[in-house]
Amino acid sequence: MLEKNIHTILGCDNNYSESKIVVFGAPYDGTTSYRPGTRFAASAIRNESYSMETYSPYQDKDLEDINVFDAGDLELPFGNPAKALEQIEVFSSEILKDEKIPFMIGGEHLVTLGAIRAVTQLHKDLHIIHFDAHSDLRDEYLGEPLSHATVIRRCWDLVGDNRIFQFGIRSGSKEEIYWGRKHVHTCFYNFNDLDYAVDILKDKPVYLTIDLDVLDTSVFPGTGTPEAGGVTFNELLNAIKKISNLNIVALDMTELSPPLDPSGASTALACKLLREILLYVYR
Amino acid sequence: MLEKNIHTILGCDNNYSESKIVVFGAPYDGTTSYRPGTRFAASAIRNESYSMETYSPYQDKDLEDINVFDAGDLELPFGNPAKALEQIEVFSSEILKDEKIPFMIGGEHLVTLGAIRAVTQLHKDLHIIHFDAHSDLRDEYLGEPLSHATVIRRCWDLVGDNRIFQFGIRSGSKEEIYWGRKHVHTCFYNFNDLDYAVDILKDKPVYLTIDLDVLDTSVFPGTGTPEAGGVTFNELLNAIKKISNLNIVALDMTELSPPLDPSGASTALACKLLREILLYVYR
Amino acid sequence: MLEKNIHTILGCDNNYSESKIVVFGAPYDGTTSYRPGTRFAASAIRNESYSMETYSPYQDKDLEDINVFDAGDLELPFGNPAKALEQIEVFSSEILKDEKIPFMIGGEHLVTLGAIRAVTQLHKDLHIIHFDAHSDLRDEYLGEPLSHATVIRRCWDLVGDNRIFQFGIRSGSKEEIYWGRKHVHTCFYNFNDLDYAVDILKDKPVYLTIDLDVLDTSVFPGTGTPEAGGVTFNELLNAIKKISNLNIVALDMTELSPPLDPSGASTALACKLLREILLYVYR
Amino acid sequence: MLEKNIHTILGCDNNYSESKIVVFGAPYDGTTSYRPGTRFAASAIRNESYSMETYSPYQDKDLEDINVFDAGDLELPFGNPAKALEQIEVFSSEILKDEKIPFMIGGEHLVTLGAIRAVTQLHKDLHIIHFDAHSDLRDEYLGEPLSHATVIRRCWDLVGDNRIFQFGIRSGSKEEIYWGRKHVHTCFYNFNDLDYAVDILKDKPVYLTIDLDVLDTSVFPGTGTPEAGGVTFNELLNAIKKISNLNIVALDMTELSPPLDPSGASTALACKLLREILLYVYR
Amino acid sequence: MLEKNIHTILGCDNNYSESKIVVFGAPYDGTTSYRPGTRFAASAIRNESYSMETYSPYQDKDLEDINVFDAGDLELPFGNPAKALEQIEVFSSEILKDEKIPFMIGGEHLVTLGAIRAVTQLHKDLHIIHFDAHSDLRDEYLGEPLSHATVIRRCWDLVGDNRIFQFGIRSGSKEEIYWGRKHVHTCFYNFNDLDYAVDILKDKPVYLTIDLDVLDTSVFPGTGTPEAGGVTFNELLNAIKKISNLNIVALDMTELSPPLDPSGASTALACKLLREILLYVYR
Amino acid sequence: MLEKNIHTILGCDNNYSESKIVVFGAPYDGTTSYRPGTRFAASAIRNESYSMETYSPYQDKDLEDINVFDAGDLELPFGNPAKALEQIEVFSSEILKDEKIPFMIGGEHLVTLGAIRAVTQLHKDLHIIHFDAHSDLRDEYLGEPLSHATVIRRCWDLVGDNRIFQFGIRSGSKEEIYWGRKHVHTCFYNFNDLDYAVDILKDKPVYLTIDLDVLDTSVFPGTGTPEAGGVTFNELLNAIKKISNLNIVALDMTELSPPLDPSGASTALACKLLREILLYVYR
């Protein structure tokens, strides 16, 4: 009998039960204020991963040798961010309950909140490492508390002061930047303080959220609000390597926008980064 | 003293007080389920109108000779359709209060609901002429009552049976098409029944809502859910001519998606249609 | 336990065993002489079908009510057309052996040859209905016998004279057009002779091959060698309706090229056509 | 010794001396008021012609059987329309002097003026057939007498009243349309009056200028100022057939804009049209 | 009474009279020799600035706290560079007369000449800082003295030897590069000599002209003649910081070409640079 | 008599007999496994070179002063890699026989094999310098021995152990990378070992093959399989300078894919690189 040729991120075709990491897409960009499109990111990565190698010369490891399950994309309602976050939370909780690591692919950055809600149920002491060009610390945006521009503030509502470590930040409103000085650790423009953070976070459960626009616009133009003056691919890779020995209990990668990536180069970079992160984080 | 070179739809640069029609953009596409982008429609029309003539050889009339005010774009929150609709309603009400005709440029089709709410306050007997490829009569979509796919059903909530006349319809779920048979007048694929409708609507206040995907995909590819088998530009123009003697108290034109219009031809068509409608409806 | 959200053409998510039609992608464009890209067609249709309705107002039928299996895409080697055709033949044969109808989505038109080889094993009396802008009757192209430009000639090698009925043809070399006069039935530009063909083919096993460039360039620009002067969507739909009572034992739809379809309108049309064909052919 | 593989419009690779028609590109779009790009038209046609057949099933004739010389592109200065026109005039004059027919590929429509200047030196009695969406009869545009929007008016300066026959016109300023009523023959929207014109022009030297935006936007979106409501490809082809027995002493085809033709379908149509015109006009 | 929602660069919505800097667009690309499109730059920046923050973490300053007037775009004739430059000169003169700083957004680089003409009327001792990949020192280009490739030579006609300081240059004809050695100060590839220039220019009136292609192609691909081997965003930002204490009496930023920026990343960078320059230069 | 304006890479318009280097296009991408398009590279470079300067400020040399012949593009069959390679071999052999240096512009990387076959006939002792992101050392790919992914392995079949020096490698299967350790010299990520290689190769005949994806994705997005973490333009330029004194007997530059380069920046970079290489290698 013929079987369907299943469409999966390359090298992530293990069974759910045997897998330690579960990748899934959260195709939501309903609050994106300028140019939407991140809803297509996980699907594009699935397609583009076809041209990626499963082997990493950086780590001398191979995706074929680790167990990862690609669960496909959630089906989220666009006009209702509250409900979308709920569905993400439920899904993430199930993965966590089975003692696996959820690795969510956004979507806009707001999706992170759904996953963080799930993780904080389990890990009261959760800390967050946040790579981004934007501080995302507004209390509301255009009158809305749930937005890509408020998501880290909403996470702070859950974890509180001194639990969030931001890197690569180079954009924000005056108000949120000033607020951030008192409530989170912000490293502007680069990863210079990362060793310090790693030291503090040594024994803590950590959530890693990567907004891909932390990368320089030259390196990653395919995103809705690109910010010049960012980090290179190698700098990001080294930063991930540095934190990979921490106890990362869940993670995400957001804000790839395939309609803004006509050459496909940003999507290809996201695939490669996904591979490297999986190989670094897996144990 | 230097004055700003104001950015306005060509020929719509009159003062508000002297104008009889008020054009405004409702740049909202927050519930778009597949490919967003209609939020940029009014802005694109404003830019592209620069290359349009103000004179219509079809009607031997000129935009320069009538008084229209282009109010620019509303600023709507993307993650909150209820609030976006509210703002549209308030804005439309103000125009209507001043005894002018609001002409809204979407955005996704959901924006129509905001304007219809405003109009039904004034015209209890409101009837709706609806040009579209999709019947938009679902009761909910992905669990949401407010959606581009439910908008005409929500309008029906306000105006009731036998008040809505649909033309050009060629797509829908089985359920909504069957529901429509009992509650609205639907003319599939074309404008064949239009004379009949004009006859019935002769003395009624009418809201005209045009989803531009009523046009064939060849004529109007620049939209999120193009549907083959639609009408030509000349057929649409003739239909508008036919109804232009009715008492049109408000109207809209929705679903142009500039990011899906790389040649600019769909945007140019929308500009031309806008001119023809303004010249037909103005009196 | 979590299950993968499987990525399938909308409404084609039945089990293999219960299905009567098996859709599969043959992502091959290795002989395309000018602008490649059809290899991405089936994948694009799978993505885009998300925004399609399963219900057809044209036929008052619903994909939800019939059993179709989407087998995903074959994995074909690009530099070796002979081997690619072999794999298509083997796959098609298996479907036919199980008394199901294979519905292949190209890829360039050459893929048809693989399926026809499988079908002629079973149906010695096979006839072919061929909708296309190009006659594809060359004996070789740039020295190669296996090419998108020779595919129907290669099919003629298998079925012989008076078995092939071409419609919509409006391009070819002088030599192949003259050759065609003696060996196949060619209806230029349109479907005018279709009734005649239907009459002849009444009791024959029929293979239907649709090169989507039979459509006018306005209707279907998203293809590698668009030809002006073609048929409309409604004309194509009517032609398919006319032949849908014949004994169609296998079929295909080829030459959608997503990289040449930046608006997505050609892909959306292909989805709609796929739905209508499935509903017409299914019994 | 190796020879260069010369880059030429397919089938137009004859020597200059043996050719009766000389095709050349006039890559100028320096006065284009909105979206430039027609400067790339002739080059794009040269590239795209690679995928065109030299044989016409419409006429049962083949480019291989006639003698046409493709002279490549002129090198024109963008900021100086007067000088660009001069160069076009000189080049056209040389072709005419050698008793050949110049067939210029624009560029914006202004280039026509250079060729007409050359032709009127030889043919004092020149008449012009003008296919276009726009009447191009302004006396000046943004203060400039030389512009794509004034080009036919400038031609009128040379040939005078009742010598210009326009077809397909559907856009213009009120002033130019009114002016046209008294000085040229204008057939709006279509080719309905063409027989009448053919009759008048029977024994006259004729210049044929085709602005490709005479075609409907669905058929030809790849142009800077597309106008809905135009003619189909078959209508244009029939019109050309009708006038092909006139004494056409020079001709042009303008306003293809490749940057606005991401699918390539408009360029492909221009290639096919070029082939058909060459085969019709050649004797 | 309703007011128009004015379309302005974010944070540049002050009144003319209270403003110290006046931003305006000079949408001219009429001499661009290869790929035009810079005419859309100012309009694109106006649209895209919507997604920019008004606050700069680099300077801890906010556009909301300074007074800048965005005057919109000039309306310039494309086929007549002399007249276009005249209009730019007149407009710039008016701003200067009111003791404000004109900040022009091109357009192609030629527009700089119009502004320089205005400034040299007031400041006989004017010096020019020129950031660019191309030296623009030709005496004529394709026979024309007014061209994007001759603009700095034309400025030299006005200011004379040793008044022009070029940085980042990495392209030019042999002739112009050799000519430059005797008449201007050229720093190739980077900003290494900038301190030297700042020292010399300490007490001089300075015009700053930035051709954005001084940036590396990776950082700024959205321009007509990108040149590999350029500077990074941070290097450009630091260079601007260094010169911001000079007496900058007028400035411009040219050569963004939105049609060549499908991802929007170059436009976003231009917005951010505009903000930083405004905050640096304002006093 | 009029002559054709020949379409040639700028500055490469010398006669064959007087030229020392012969540039030609090998427009083949028939085995490209993911996104094809490199077949258009040489043609795009020919067009784009129009906007390039012939003078290099890096070397103070000018293409006008050296003799290079641009032979245009070969015409290669897409479905038959063996035959395509044969044609490349024959063409390269002819150039070599005439004691000129062939400089091939791909196409996909597989084309290199055709040229290497020609060179190894003449130079039994041939060594290869290979700049690439991918090691291309697989023994077969999808069952095929001739593929862009196996090309350097096929070259190794001809030259044997210790003759191939790879630089910039950062992608490959585990198997090929391990195989490479024993048979070729591989420098990962950069050019660090280049001096060592130059030393060894001092007196050897050298073939230089540059897969342009050796560049970082930010620098060169316009290619089918971009790999983050690559070298900058200046690093590549310096590497070429370093090896330019070796005895380079033939060379190529592959994998530019114009359909993936919507801004044109990658094509412009390839033009500039071509100029610099020609000026470095020519003697």
Features:
homohexamer, 283 residues, alpha/beta, Arginase, Chain A, 8-stranded parallel sheet, two-stranded antiparallel sheet, 8 helices, 10 strands
Question: How is this fold's topology laid out?
Answer:
6 copies of one chain form a homohexamer.
Chain A: E1 21-26, H1 41-48, E2 55-56, E3 61-62, E4 68-73, H2 81-97, E5 101-106, H3 111-122, E6 127-131, H4 151-159, E7 164-169, H5 174-183, E8 185-188, H6 194-200, E9 205-211, H7 233-243, E10 247-254, H8 265-281
Parallel strand pairs in A: 1-4, 1-5, 5-10, 6-7, 6-9, 7-8, 9-10
Antiparallel strand pairs in A: 2-3
Helix pairs in contact in A: 1-8, 2-3, 3-4
InterPro entries (chains A, B, C, D, E, F): Agmatinase-rel, Ureohydrolase, Ureohydrolase_dom_sf
EC number (chains A, B, C, D, E, F): 3.5.3.11
Enzyme class (chains A, B, C, D, E, F): hydrolase
